[in-house]
Structures are given as structure tokens and as C-alpha cells.
Amino acid sequence: MRSSILLASLASSTVSAETVLGAYIFSRHGDRTAKSTPPTELTDLGYQEIFTSGSYYRSRYVASDASRRIHGIAPDIVKLSQITASAPVDNVLQASGIGFLQGLYPPVGETLGSQTLRNSTVIQAPMNGYQLLPLQVVQNGANSEDAAWLQGATNCANAQISSNDYFRSSEYNDTLARTKEFYANMHPYVERTFAEDQTSFKNAYTIWDLLNVASIHNASVALPDDADFFQLRTLADQHEYGLAYNASEPIRAVTGSIIAAEVTDALNGTITGKGKNVLNIQFGAYAGMLSYFGLANLTAASTDFYGVPDYASSLVWELVTNATVSNTSYPTADDISVRFFFHNGTTSNISEPVEFPLFGTGRSPLPWSEFVASTAKFSIGTQAEWCSACGNSTGVCSPAALGGEGASGALGTSSSDDSSGGHKGGISKAVAGVIGAMVTLGVILGLEILFFTVGGFRLVSKKRLARNASNGSGDMSGSGVETKA
């Protein structure tokens, strides 16, 4: 996604008297090594990028002098009940999560970072008062940064069929034929990694990714000229958006549907808990972002939403109100609205998120009830919903596993005008949608079973998919589109 998206701001400005009640941040990882040379790793540059973004969001939401300080949030020493952070089981994403949280709540120094024991002994926290924040581990997107394709749809038969449909589409095949000579000319730049017959639009993203990493880190590698490099990026954007979203086949965007449900559930928890948990942060891959862009019709706000977001990009949903908020008075759902912001690349005080209207409405903020109703049209927030949408009927989708009405296909969803939030009985990352864990300097403590597993695509035949759908999820654990790369 190109930087011109930063110019597409809304005409209306944020009301200065507005109170931010809570926020949900979905962040991409920082700079990493190339996908075609796994295992991928977060680079020092990536660490710097994600730490910078975390520091920015501290200055926006957390610090005592924050520009849009969340009501009641602890400014210096983290209050763990107020924040939930999560990342998949993935080296790049988990490391990015830790780096971001370091910027969000930095070391507090010797004075605040000390504790006096009963016997009067003063204990100083290590590393100048380094704060230990929980990072829950979600299974969706596990090892995604080692996969060529990041769509979170492992075991979702219908999503895999839809993915295969893209490779049969006229859009894909026309582009594949049209760019054959172009990619042949690009082969000398990638010949150490890709065979000649592999250098085509079929591998558009991994080819561009390899050269993009080289353009940042390897001064000894020859690169295409600026025009060809831009063309490679544009083709990679087209390829990945085509795999992430299709208006006539919304199941292809199953990752975005899950993210949408998680956002609604988390923000609803802030409202029903009257501000007990106010900040939710999830680290994930670009595929989920692209899927959500399509589902939420953000492409109507800017055509730049068709592009793959850069490293450290972030989506932000804010809960806001103009009603009075105090220790004894909390707004009702009718007095609460949602603002959506996006920033392409590393966020900082000199390059801040831009507000965009959701769902093609051209309006922001949206009343909470409207946000919930619009999100409910495409979100997937319960196991029963997922099973029905994916066409799976055994394993976690068997009648015995679902029980009751869920076994016969009924979904445990709320009606579209339910303003209390999302899905009744829906799964949240903090409860049923995550493997609960504590990551402290890379140490994971504890586990909780995920209702369903989502990961990457691989190309298989429709016949095999139909067999897997009828026999259960089967062995669909492959991550990434199965290419010759």
C-alpha cells in the first residue's frame, strides 16, 4: 500500500471535547527477512519500526499528556486488567508484539520500578524498571510469516475452494498471460531463488517480497529500475487482494470476518465492563487487513486500500463519546460511537493515523449500534458460524461438538439491531478465541484451546476439498499457497 493513502483524510475533524473510552489496534509486524528464505526473522529495523509505533500510541492513548488519552487508563505503570495484547505463534509477530509493548509501556526507572518487602528490603526491577506485559498467543495465523500466502483459512473448506477460484478467474489468467514477458525480464534478478518457470504472476508477492527485502538490506544485489520495481509492487498488490477478498465470495475473506468479530467483542467488553478493559492490541499479517478492507468497503474511501499495507501498519477502532464520563457516570451504548483510523507503515508523531469512514457510509464516527449492525453482516464470531460458513460438518463441527441447535446449523448470533455488541455467545480472544498465554521476554506460560484453527492457503483440487468437507477438516494444515517457489 502506497503512502498516498495518508492524504485521504475526512473532511470533518475530531471534536476536541470528545472522550476516548477505549481502542482496538490491529498492527502488522515490522521489517523482516524474505519469505522465500525461511525462517523469517524480525530485523533490527523492524524492531525499531514497531517500537516507534508503540511509543506513538503511548503518546496518543496512554501517557498523562496523551493527545487522545483513554479515559482512566494507567499512564505509567501498566494495569494489566486494562489491556489485552495477542499475537499468533510466529517468531516475527510475537517479537513485534513484545517490541510494540515496550514502546507502549517503557521502563519506569528505579523510583517506580522498586518494591519494599516486609523486612524493609528494597527490590529494584531489572532493566531500569522494565515492565512485563502479557502477550496472549492466538492460533490463527500460526507461523504465517513463513508462508507464501497468509489467508487464515486452514480447515475452512469453502474458503479454500474460493481461493482456488481466484486462480481460475479471468482476472488472474489474463494477468498471468499479459505479464509473462515482464516476469521473464525480471528473472535475472531472482534467479538464485526462483527457476525461470517459477518467475511469473503466480508468485507475484514472493518475487516482489524478495526484491523488496534486498532493496532495504543488500547493497550488493542488482535491482530492477524504479518503474519495473513499482510494477512488481502493483502486481503483488493485485495478486494478494484477489486472494484476500471477493465481493461475490465473502468466505474468501474469512480472516477479516474473524477479526471483525474480535474487534466488536472486545469493544463491547469495554462498554459492558464500564471501562475495565480499555485497550486491545492484536498483531497479525497483511492478509487479515486486506480481507477487512474489502469486507468493510474501505476501498470506497480510498483505492489505496487495494494495496498490501507496509510493515508496522496499523488499523485502529476508537470508542468515543461526548457524554459525561466520571468515576460514577459511564455513558450508555446510545451515547457511544466508533471512529476508524488507518496508518500505512510506521506510526510516529510526524506521521499519524488518518480517519476513514467504514462500510462505504462516508460518515465518521458511526453510532455504536450502526457499527455493530454493519459488522454483523460479515463477521464470524462463533464456532457454529464458522462451521456453517466453511461447510465443515465433523471434528469441531460435528453435531456432538456443537450440541443442540448448533448441530443442525443454527448460528448463535444476535440480530442485526442488537446494539449491545457483536455476537451473543461469541468467542473473544481473551476467552475462547485464543490459546491464553503469558509471554515475558519470549517465555510462554499456560495454554487454552482455540475453538477453531485458521492458518494459510494451499492449492488443492475441488474433489479433494469436497472429500475433506464431508469427512471433517482432515489434514488441511498446510500453510501458504502451494507454489513452485
From TrEMBL:
Kindly indicate whether the keyword Transmembrane belongs to this entry: yes
Q: Which UniProt keywords apply?
A: Membrane, Signal, Transmembrane, Transmembrane helix
Where do the TM regions start and end? 430-457
Record's keyword annotation contains Signal: yes
Read off the InterPro entries from this record: His_Pase_clade-2 (IPR000560), His_PPase_superfam (IPR029033), Histidine_acid_phosphatase (IPR050645)
GO MF annotations, alphabetized? phosphatase activity
Q: Which domain of life is it from?
A: Eukaryota
Question: Which interval of the chain is the signal sequence?
Answer: 1-17
The UniProt similarity line reads: Belongs to the histidine acid phosphatase family.
Tell me the protein's name: Acid phosphatase
User: What lineage is on file?
Assistant: Eukaryota, Fungi, Dikarya, Ascomycota, Pezizomycotina
